[in-house]
Design goal:
single chain; alpha/beta; TIM Barrel; globular
């Protein structure tokens, strides 16, 4: 089913997203990728969020960074082995602090509702379990293309090219970005082959020459995870399109320039 209204045109010269992006909802202020985190990030003025999305055993897109449940929930083992009704009752907040005990894992559908109510933009990082790259991209993109309500479409990103291929098949109207750590010889070619509009690179590897190369290919450039004031100023002076930060209480998300 096509979106109710056409998505806005998004490219490097028509970049409509906020410059500042809250990592996993609220960085470290609340348990990552939970509704509490997105509420906290929103309370600090952020209107664009980064999140990690993968599939449950029964194909439900939900938020979790790791392949395993152990670090951020009271569950154990591979997340992809459990159905959503099993995942949805896990405690995803107590690991962070007692204040968030009982906070649950978040479905992508619930996050979409939050973003629609609060008029927020979203960068969805595809985090497929091994062997599910294409299917994860396809299912997540199809769901977002069908259910996202605003004209500003979610940006889909991944380190895995196969997940971006799946995203293109499932939601061809959604913009995509290739995630990289440091630049490598084929990264620009790979991004263009997947019809990506952007690269998202580790901040310490963003040099003036790399910025020039990305611009020459007509791509936008974002960077993660920017938590230092001097580094943020350097990247803003280089003209980056987006800075993803954990330090949501350190930066003014309304600031658009150095």
């Amino acid at each position: 089913m096509p979106p109710a209204q056409p998505f806005a045109v998004v490219d490097a010269t028509h970049w409509p997203y906020p410059r500042w992006i809250a990592h996993r909802g609220a960085g470290r202020l609340a348990p990552e990728n939970t509704l509490a985190a997105f509420r906290a990030g929103h309370a600090h003025g952020y209107r664009m969020f980064e999140c990690d999305v993968r599939l449950s055993a029964d194909g439900v897109p939900f938020l979790l960074h790791d392949d395993v449940l152990d670090r951020t929930t009271d569950g154990r083992g591979e997340a992809a082995a459990l159905a959503w009704d099993e995942l949805s009752v896990l405690d995803a907040g107590a690991w962070h602090s007692a204040k968030f005990r009982g906070e649950r894992l978040l479905s992508l559908q619930a996050l979409v509702r939050f973003c629609q109510i609060e008029d927020c933009a979203l960068n969805v990082e595809l985090k497929p379990a091994p062997g599910t790259e294409y299917e994860t991209g396809r299912i997540v993109a199809r769901m977002l293309e069908r259910e996202w309500g605003g004209r500003l479409p979610p940006l889909l990103s991944s380190f895995r090219v196969e997940a971006l291929r799946g995203a293109c098949a499932g939601g061809p109207s959604l913009p995509r970005a290739l995630l990289i750590g440091s630049p490598f010889p084929d990264c620009l070619r790979l991004a263009k082959e997947q019809a990506c509009i952007a690269l998202v690179a580790g901040h310490e590897h963003v040099s003036p020459s790399f910025v020039q190369q990305v611009r020459a290919e007509g791509l936008a450039l974002l960077s993660y995870t920017v938590n230092d004031e001097a580094e943020a100023r350097r990247l803003l002076q280089l003209g980056l399109h987006g800075l993803i930060t954990d330090c949501v209480n350190c930066f003014d998300p309304g600031r658009q320039a150095a």
